[in-house]
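Quick one:
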Amino acid sequence: MTITSAMPRARKRPTQTRTKRVSSLPAIRLSQLPPSHIDLRDPLHAVLVCEDCKTLVPITGMGDKVQKLVPHHTGKAGEADAIRCRSSNRRIEFDMTIPEWCQALADAVKEASSRQATAVLPKAFSPQTDRTLRARAERTSAGRVADWNAVLPQVADADKNRQEVPAGDAPTEGPAVPLTTLHPKRPER
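Output:
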């Protein structure tokens, strides 16, 4: 969202909202919102999630005829410019009672919990994996040394075979490959 000079900026307001202004947007009906976006546990300090900026906003005028959202900003406090949300001062229609809201919230929680697995079952091991894990658990340091000593003759044979020069003619192109290690000497000073 680009910010231009024509965008409305929120001015510093008193702590208690006393404006008679009402937003021209249609009123928010509580029955159309998800029950988890409404908090009516304390009716005098009711809160709901603003549809436009997705922030928790208090409802003002709970003792009056008209209930509406408190004027609020779209950006994060202290980070973004203070731009008034378009749902500020939007009317709220209480078309459900507090017990109805509590029942709707309980039903939503039950529905959400039924979608989640209650217990995570571990995947069963294959027989070969099970044998390998048991063998690792049963091995001791003495067993590892014995295994290494059993393999040492085969390792020595492999090293001996690597050092042998293959039988056959020398390469036809290029210089001869030296078979002895060269040790260059430093010049004397």
